Amino acid sequence: MTEDTKMDLQSMNIAAEKRQQLKQLFPEVFSEDRVDIDALRRVLGDFVEGGKERFGLNWPGKAECMKVIQAPSVATLKPCRDESVNFDDTENLFIEGDNLEVLKLLQKSYFGKIKMIYIDPPYNTGFEFIYPDKYAENLNTYLAYTGQTDDEGKRFSTNTQETGRYHSNWLNMMHPRLYLARNLMQNDGLIFVSIDDNEVENLRSLMNEIFGEENFVDSIVWKKRYGGGAKEKYLVSIHEYILVYAKNIDALMDIHVPLGEDAIERYYKNKDKHYEKRGPYRTHPLEAMKSFDLRANLNFSIPAPDGTEVFPKRQWRWSKERVAIALERDELDFLKNRDGEYVIHTKQYLKNEDGTVRSTKAFSLIDDVYTQHGTNEIVSIFGNAKVFDFPKPSRLIKRLIEIGTEPNEESIILDFFSGSCSSAHAVMEQCSQDNGKRKHIMVQLPEYCDDGSEAQKLGFQTIADIGKERIRRVGNKIQNGADGELNFNRQKNIDIGFKVLKLGRSNFKTWNGDPEAFDETGKQLEMHIDHVDEAASAEDILYELLLKAGFELTTKIETVEFADKEVFSIAEGALLICLEKEITSDLIDAMAEADPFQVICLDEAFHGNDQLKTNAVQTFAARAAAQESEIVFRTV
């Protein structure tokens, strides 16, 4: 079967996607393709009468949030090779733009593919950037802010208590972003959100609503500083929170993290004949604590090295069979107390029998990483602490990466409030330490640095510029070592590159949702007038089609030749994109013989020749039938 449709240049239709999912689960609640709400409530066993009070989080503007979510984006992400590192080979992304628009654009390509999200959003203290989110003009607002249009007066602003909707504005900003972010997560994915006391209660309620209260994992308390507080009026506040939610908590495996170096040095001090293979060991009393329930089968004697029998004062922790195995493997330590009596301890080696280092459970308290560590990193990278205020320490995020990912999995980690890119720093360093295969996607608004600021003096015009430069410098340090010499001890194949893409208008002149512009634009399309932006490069168009065809933005692209014409081959020929301005029958035949799954061509390349387009449809249909496959043929 072969399709011939005009390519949809908008982002994923969230409402349509949700309706389709609902139809798969509950087909009986649909009538004439519309949802019968009463039927849905009956299926779910909900017989609450309308108009009754109900529990939940409400605020002014909540209803508009769904309009924000469902308003599709007609923007695109334009590649920027000059600011990238290893553009053609890297699998990391840095996206410069308003994160709401970006999250919409990522829906098709990254739906259900993100393993872990970490964000450090504005804490709503009245001094951070808050996005206006007038749902009909998000892109226009952004373009005006970044100077890409001549529009005046549209500026992003802070959210102060004097606005009268202090908490509501913050929730209106967060709700759509968290909703769209959840769509991107894998079924076993985790999201970590940093927050302080200003909005922690509202954030917890909001995330309960979006992710489900049952998917709450924990609230990590981060002790962010040593002490101080001379200026505090009441208590000395030294902590923040990191809320952790799962996409589907039932899909989560047990969470273990590697032992820290401090714990290893502190506890694993003993050595025996197994040291070379299993490393040092620590001990635990085999005698059961009083909290253990009494069990008669755990009261037995154990032979000591001198042949005497050792009995427990109460009972052992292990069974007789387990103790026999431990004796055979030399996994028990026989020590003597002050009275000369044997006390038996179990050995816990640093390494498992397969040589892997033992893991442990993570705590919900982090008390050995401080904000000062983040500041020190900025000084180390840029030589000036004032380049970026209050960056999260990469060590903090590395702890979360250990919780949220496995080194041997090709996980994607997303941060859409990336700031100075502590998250990218953490991902690269963690991969260099455990030879991980993680990738990162950073999203940052190009927020202007203050006039006369230290950042501006160093040549950084925006926060996004700071983040990109940090990734470059950290990558070089990981690759070459702190002293600039080639670091031969680093793990191999660590991806220190990143591909820069910037939010902008579509490369195609499409209807932007303005009813007044529809007639004119519609007539142009009907007349087959060239609707490709003259300023758009072939690579700009290629990446927009890649994104809106649902392919990841790091998918490998090859340039191949068919019938003396240049064609882009995506994912080893799964998608063929032809941007030639002249389509021929030979070119169509050659592309069909390559057996792609999708083919995209410029509509203008047919020059209004409907017969040639019909022949193309028939050619792809015949090839698909012969191969018992499907070829989706689209023009744009």
UniProtKB/TrEMBL annotation:
Give the reaction(s) catalysed.
Answer: a 2'-deoxyadenosine in DNA + S-adenosyl-L-methionine = an N(6)-methyl-2'-deoxyadenosine in DNA + S-adenosyl-L-homocysteine + H(+)
Q: Which residues form the DNA methylase N-4/N-6 domain?
A: 114-429
**What residue range is the signal peptide?**
none
- Keywords of the record: Methyltransferase, S-adenosyl-L-methionine, Transferase
Pfam families xref list = N6_N4_Mtase
InterPro entries reported for this sequence: DNA_methylase_N4/N6, DNA_methylase_N6_adenine_CS, N4/N6-MTase_EcoPI_Mod-like, SAM-dependent_MTases_sf
Task: List the Gene Ontology MF annotations in alphabetical order.
Answer: DNA binding; N-methyltransferase activity; site-specific DNA-methyltransferase (adenine-specific) activity
Q: Which family does it belong to?
A: Belongs to the N(4)/N(6)-methyltransferase family.
Name of the protein in its database record: site-specific DNA-methyltransferase (adenine-specific)
The organism encoding this protein is Terasakiella brassicae
